[in-house]
Amino acid sequence: MSRTTSRLSRVIASSLIVSCSLMAVPMHASAQIVPTDALVQPATAGAAADSRARVNAFFARGDVRQAMMNEGVDAASAQARVDAMSDDEIRALDGRIAKAPAGGEVLGIIFTVFVILLITDILGFTKVFPFTRSIR
Q1: Cα separation of 85 and 94, whole Å?
Q2: What is the pLDDT of residue 101?
Q3: Nearest CA to 64 among 89, 82, 46, 88?
Q4: Residues 69 and 112 sit within 8 Å (Cβ to Cβ)
Q5: Is 0.70 surpassed by the pTM of this model?
Q6: What is the pLDDT of residues 8-62, one digit of tens each?
Q7: Number of Cβ atoms within 10 Å of the Cβ of 89
Q8: If we measure between CA atoms, which residue out of 103, 81, 102, 94 comes closest to residue 47?
Q9: Which phi and psi angles does 13 have, rounded to 5°?
Q10: Contacts of residue 65, Cβ cutoff 8 Å, sequence gap at least 6
Q11: How far is residue 112 from each of residues 105, 108, 115, 126, 131, measured CA to CA in Å?
Q12: Residue 1, pLDDT score
């Protein structure tokens, strides 16, 4: 056992000597001014075109046009304003449209109410659903 231990300590000592020796080797670093354009990756023209196409498709939908007319907004003038937007503005608008709720909140509320009523039916506090049996 002592032979294995001495061999292991030799290997560990040798690796520590090599690694400590390599720490003394000077490393060269260079500093230079980096232009902002090199760090900030410009959005490709394809991404801007895709965002513009999605926004135009959104404004071309019938329900969106009807909602704009209900609010008193002319669809043609709204489309002209969208066409005049820069690529950054189009990307921001596309992101806001993608994050906008599309009726998901209403379905979530209905599902939550259903689950609460189902649990209260099972516990015997209410009798709303005929397919449940009370545990009482």
Answers
A1: 12
A2: 67
A3: 82
A4: no
A5: no
A6: 889 999 998 888 888 888 877 788 888 877 777 655 556 778 888 888 888 888 8
A7: 13
A8: 94
A9: -65, -40
A10: 59, 75
A11: 11, 6, 5, 16, 18
A12: 57
**In one letter, which amino acid is 51?**
S
Contact 75, 65 (CB under 8 A): yes
Residue 56's contacts (CB-CB under 8 Å, 6 or more residues apart) are: 79, 82
User: Which among 107, 131, 109, 106 is positioned nearest to 118, based on CA atoms?
Assistant: 131
CA distance 110 to 102: 15
Count of other CB atoms within 10 angstroms of residue 94: 19
102 closest CA partner among 71, 76, 64? 64
d(CA 136, CA 134): 5
Please name which of 8, 1, 90 lies closest in space to residue 43, comparing C-alpha atoms: 90
Average pLDDT for the chain: 79
pLDDT at 87: 83
Find out whether 112 and 124 touch, Cβ atoms under 8 Å: no
